[in-house]
């Protein structure tokens, strides 16, 4: 279970890192400051810290047995107490709710991580909409100055200007100095709010969704044990000639079920689950489907375009 969480968080962090390449390629530098950095801080402050606790817990020994034993702490309770600011130092039972490491250091580290996680939410929500509104006002003042015949040269369209133009085009307006550009701040703010809520809640649900890897491993282990104990292991107790025949027939039946269930059915199930994890949990961190339509290479299309020219 813990390994599936580590794999899931690592893949989601890699997906957020890939979004940086999109921002750099499209020269949307405001998205780096207003989206990429707070998203990375939010993800690492909570779930990156959880992965660090998992790795550290693997190194903790279980000391003694019975009521006075020292058990490794419950990471779920530790993560909950991280936000409730409740850290107990006494060892209770298997579901231990004490500090994972030094209590004083843990309190300081968790206070900082909670501050970063909670601070990244308004960062994602407010910075980009207000910056785009300021950018739109600056462009509007520049356009009015040129329209009035001033000698000042208008500010050229930068990468952030393209972002404003993108939102203008979504609201049905046309860029240019002939028509007054429209900028619907409420629409931009609502869009950013939806994006922020989706990312924050998605980090929690997507991390839990990676537990399907743990469920698949449990199902594989249980099915393997059932096929071995109920089919092949039973015929090994036969004696004499019936034992020889039973081993041949039992092995054939066991092998057929193993191929049909464990390899074919479970292999298809694992493929579908991993495909879903790649499409939803991983690609949602950087892929938006707003690029160019895919056109396969075709000589017929090339020749047709040449004839038209």
Describe, in plain words, how this protein is organized in 3D:
The protein has 309 residues and is mainly alpha-helical. Helices cover 72% and strands 0% of the residues. It has nine helices and no strands. It has helices spanning 2-25, 29-58, 75-84, 103-147, 159-170, 185-209, 212-235, 240-282, 299-308. It starts with a helix and ends with a helix. Residues 86-97, 150-158 and 168-180 have low confidence and may be disordered.
N→C terminal distance:
61 Å
Number of strands: 0
Q: What is the CA-atom radius of gyration, in angstroms?
A: 29 Å
Beta fraction: under 5%
Q: What structural class is derived from the secondary structure elements?
A: mainly alpha
Arithmetic mean pLDDT: 79
Total helical elements: 9
Shape assignment: flat
Question: What is the N-to-C succession of helices and strands?
Answer: HHHHHHHHH
Major sheet size, sense and barrel closure: none
In percent, how helical is the residue content?
A: over 70%
Unreliable segments (pLDDT under 50, ≥5 consecutive)?
A: 86-97, 150-158, 168-180
Label this structure with key terms.
single chain; 309 residues
Condensed summary:
The chain is an all-alpha fold and 309 residues long. The chain has nine helices and no strands.
Task: Give the helices and strands, then pairings.
Elements: H1 2-25, H2 29-58, H3 75-84, H4 103-147, H5 159-170, H6 185-209, H7 212-235, H8 240-282, H9 299-308
Helix pairs in contact: 1-2, 1-6, 2-4, 2-6, 4-5, 4-6, 7-8
């Amino acid at each position: 279970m813990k390994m599936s969480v580590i794999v899931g968080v690592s893949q989601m962090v890699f997906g957020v890192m890939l979004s940086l390449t999109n921002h750099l390629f499209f020269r949307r530098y405001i998205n780096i400051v207003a989206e990429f950095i707070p998203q990375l801080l939010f993800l690492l402050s909570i779930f990156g810290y959880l992965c660090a606790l998992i790795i550290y817990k693997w190194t903790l020994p279980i000391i003694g047995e019975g009521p006075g034993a020292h058990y490794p702490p419950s990471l779920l309770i530790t993560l909950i107490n991280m936000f409730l600011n409740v850290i107990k130092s006494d060892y209770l039972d298997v579901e231990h709710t004490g500090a994972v490491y030094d209590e004083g250091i843990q309190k300081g580290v968790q206070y900082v991580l909670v501050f970063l996680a909670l601070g990244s939410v308004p960062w994602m929500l407010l910075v980009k909409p207000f910056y785009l509104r300021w950018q739109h006002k600056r462009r509007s003042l520049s356009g009015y100055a040129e329209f009035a015949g001033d000698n000042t040269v208008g500010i050229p369209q930068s990468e952030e200007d393209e972002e404003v133009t993108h939102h203008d085009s979504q609201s049905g307006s046309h860029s240019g100095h002939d028509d007054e550009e429209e900028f619907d701040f409420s629409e931009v703010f609502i869009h950013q709010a939806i994006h922020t809520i989706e990312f924050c809640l998605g980090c929690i649900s997507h991390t839990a969704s990676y537990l399907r890897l743990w469920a698949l491993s449990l199902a594989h282990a249980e099915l393997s044990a059932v096929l071995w104990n109920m089919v092949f292991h039973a015929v090994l107790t036969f004696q004499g000639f019936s034992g020889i025949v039973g081993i041949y027939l039992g092995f054939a039946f066991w092998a057929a079920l193993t191929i049909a269930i464990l390899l074919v059915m479970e292999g298809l199930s694992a493929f579908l689950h991993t495909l879903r994890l790649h499409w939803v949990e991983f690609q949602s961190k950087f892929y938006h489907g707003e690029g160019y339509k895919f056109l396969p290479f075709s000589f017929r299309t090339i020749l047709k375009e040449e004839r038209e020219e």
